[in-house]
């Protein structure tokens, strides 16, 4: 087993490099050491690379990128009872403090002191080795590949969003944005029993994929008012009176505005995508239709476990999202391809992956 820890580093905006770092050691008897096998590229990784910050999180020192990872346990702390060396796992990349009010209320994704991989100042998982608490590592069934394991992270995001949307059997749901998270929201909504699932995007290829993946209907908006787009969406999708729930996975202002107008009275709106900090919002429609509006941030208790189960049972086929896998030394090219909008999910093999 290699003693070095080759890592993919963001030095500052637009500056990436590879660096040999010391292999991490276990800091707690409850921790495990993981050899990283595969890592997906998230939009947040690309945003940090391009801009060096997301909201209040600013890259001030060199930081290892990556947080969508699966790996193999190579060392366990003396108090670990649930995992052993050789276990293949999906890594939940955020560790909460476990003591603050949100944590104690069961909402650890809202932790006041979350240590989240590849969110400044914490290093990410695009490295040879990474340590994590054993209870935030999820053993993969034998028939689930490590490549699929790397997709558990964005799937858990989709699980949390769809839970926030309160999707029940027979529900109608519209998903704005057919990127990876939007597609996974469609798939989770289908697994939860939604009968009408409308994928919305401005790229025909994405809509074509969404129709083959999980959506029952697709819709391409035009450069018209939000009210006009909403009316046409409902008519073409057969949603008389509006959708039960609408998820925005785009962060685009026109999509958000259209969502509010396309919801039924008493419907649920969930904001899953991040866009501009402030937008023009149809607050009158929100009020008069008595819409429930929610945010959605990462994932909470039970979301990762359910994501693994959805993959293991075949209810969500994440393999279809994988565009390809690149070697670790080609990580920067993979980032460039993702920024250019090529493919859906590109995986980077770990430096020790042969």
Automatic annotation (TrEMBL):
It comes from Mollisia scopiformis. It comes from the Eukaryota. Belongs to the zinc-containing alcohol dehydrogenase family. GO terms for biological process: sorbitol catabolic process. Keywords: Metal-binding, NAD, Oxidoreductase, Zinc. InterPro entries: ADH-like_C (IPR013149), ADH-like_N (IPR013154), ADH_Zn_CS (IPR002328), ER (IPR020843), GroES-like_sf (IPR011032), NAD(P)-bd_dom_sf (IPR036291), SDH-like (IPR045306). Xylitol dehydrogenase which catalyzes the conversion of xylitol to D-xylulose. Xylose is a major component of hemicelluloses such as xylan. Most fungi utilize D-xylose via three enzymatic reactions, xylose reductase (XR), xylitol dehydrogenase (XDH), and xylulokinase, to form xylulose 5-phosphate, which enters pentose phosphate pathway. Pathway: Carbohydrate degradation; L-arabinose degradation via L-arabinitol; D-xylulose 5-phosphate from L-arabinose (fungal route): step 4/5. The keyword NAD applies. The keyword Transferase does not apply. Its EC number is 1.1.1.9. SMART domains: PKS_ER. Residues 11-348 form the Enoyl reductase (ER) domain. This is D-xylulose reductase.
């Amino acid at each position: 087993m290699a003693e070095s820890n080759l890592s993919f580093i963001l030095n500052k905006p637009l500056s990436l490099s590879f660096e040999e770092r010391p292999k991490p050691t276990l800091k707690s008897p409850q921790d495990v050491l993981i050899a990283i096998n595969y890592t997906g590229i998230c939009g947040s990784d690309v945003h940090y690379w391009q801009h060096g910050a997301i909201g209040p999180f600013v890259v001030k020192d060199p930081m290892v990128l990556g947080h969508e990872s699966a790996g193999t346990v190579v060392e366990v702390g003396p108090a670990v009872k649930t995992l052993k060396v050789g276990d293949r796992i999906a890594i939940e990349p955020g560790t909460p403090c476990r003591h603050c009010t949100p944590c104690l209320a069961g909402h650890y994704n809202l932790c006041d002191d979350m240590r989240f991989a590849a969110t400044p100042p914490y290093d990410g998982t695009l490295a040879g080795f990474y340590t994590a608490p054993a209870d935030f590592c999820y053993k993969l069934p034998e028939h689930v590949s490590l490549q699929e394991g790397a997709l558990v992270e964005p799937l858990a995001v989709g699980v949390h969003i769809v839970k926030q949307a309160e999707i029940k059997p027979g529900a109608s749901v519209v998903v704005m944005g057919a990127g990876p998270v939007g597609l996974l929201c469609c798939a989770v909504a289908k697994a939860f029993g939604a009968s009408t699932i409308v994928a919305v995007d401005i790229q025909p290829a994405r809509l074509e994929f969404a129709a083959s993946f999980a959506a029952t209907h697709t819709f391409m908006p035009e450069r018209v008012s939000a009210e006009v787009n909403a009316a046409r969406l409902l008519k073409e999708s057969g949603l008389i009176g509006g959708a039960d729930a609408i998820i925005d996975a785009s962060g685009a202002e026109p999509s958000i505005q259209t969502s509010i107008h396309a919801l039924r009275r008493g419907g649920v709106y969930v904001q899953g995508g991040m866009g501009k900090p402030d937008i023009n919002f149809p607050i009158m429609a929100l009020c008069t239709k008595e819409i429930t509006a929610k945010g959605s941030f990462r994932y909470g208790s039970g979301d990762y476990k359910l994501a693994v189960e959805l993959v293991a049972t075949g209810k969500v086929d994440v393999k279809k999202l994988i565009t390809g896998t690149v070697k670790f030394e080609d990580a920067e090219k993979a980032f460039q391809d993702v920024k250019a909008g090529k493919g859906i999910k590109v995986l980077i093999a770990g430096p020790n992956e042969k």
